[in-house]
Specification:
Strand order of the largest sheet: 1-2-3-6-4-5
Helix content: 25-40%
Order of helices and strands: HEEEHEHEE
Radius of gyration: 25 Å
Largest sheet: 6 strands, mixed
Shape: globular
Strand content: 25-35%
């Protein structure tokens, strides 16, 4: 008798688990259909001959992707880094985010010899929990004669 009872219990558990899975998936599919796919949002669009070229930032869901920012004026890497970080901060604020919410930063240096001076200007700009970062020296320099360019990913 015990084998039959255990066998029935096991079968009942499997049926209950299957029903939960089916009804749960049905509920999830209905919820997704009602919410719809979130639409990509863009801000600060740069145009070339009246044709959109790229956005200063793009939002998808709760993520913000900020385009590369450079410094297009004469100056040293410290001044360029400060300017670039200020521009990132402005773009993040316009997207509803902040420097403290940055998850990832890419840093592009025109010259790897500027790494230490860039770090001095960069230090502390993202709060007590800094984002992950990749830093590379570019072959051929950064566009617009900037000594540094940065882009980032943040959340809202």
């Amino acid at each position: 008798m015990k084998t039959t009872t255990n066998g029935r219990r096991s079968l009942l558990k499997k049926i209950a688990a299957s029903a939960t899975g089916i009804f749960g998936m049905s509920f999830l599919a209905k919820a997704e259909a009602q919410m719809g796919t979130p639409e990509k949002q863009v801000g600060n669009i740069t145009t070339d001959q009246e044709i959109p070229l790229f956005s200063g930032h793009t939002k998808q869901g709760n993520l913000v992707f900020v385009a590369g920012k450079g410094a297009h004026f004469k100056g040293d890497v410290a001044a360029h880094t400060k300017h670039v970080l200020d521009e990132l901060e402005k773009e993040l604020k316009s997207a509803g985010s902040s420097m403290e919410k940055v998850l990832k930063v890419n840093v592009y240096l025109a010259d790897l010899a500027d790494y230490d001076k860039m770090n001095e200007a960069y230090r502390g700009r993202f709060g007590k929990k800094p984002p992950v970062r990749t830093t590379v020296a570019t072959y051929g320099g950064v566009p617009g004669d900037s000594l540094v360019e940065m882009d980032c990913i943040a959340y809202v």
